[in-house]
Protein: SRPBCC domain-containing protein
Amino acid sequence: MQTGFKSVYQTTINAPTEKVWQALTDASIVKQYFFGSNMKTDWKVGSPVLFTGEYEGQTYTDEGTVLEYEPNKRLSFSYLSSWSNLPDETNNYLQVTYEVQPEQQGTQLTVTQTNYDEERAKHSQQSWAVVIDGLKKIVE
Structure:
């Protein structure tokens, strides 16, 4: 499996950086735009990150670890989707990074995911567009 691909999704959100950051890190807000996922973490580096829920009648548990956390700037976590059907091994985890930066029009958000094959990288960009559109509807 090729894993050298990454997807990058970047957009401007017409809201203050602090509000965008809260929408990325507050579980009650994440649930509203991230396919109904229940996110559980304390955002301390080294702590677990869990996403649980039900999608199309199937329950799921996606897991990872907080890798970086710099409030109102950058956070990063590893991520293994239960939908991937891959074994729980380090090299099967993706890395997700959120970066926020103030702009005149609001906040620039960059979402990067790594450790993909080419097909999954393309699909990921489309998925992030849907997710972040949902986030925008909440904070703008």
Summary: Helices lie at 17-25, 27-33, 118-139.
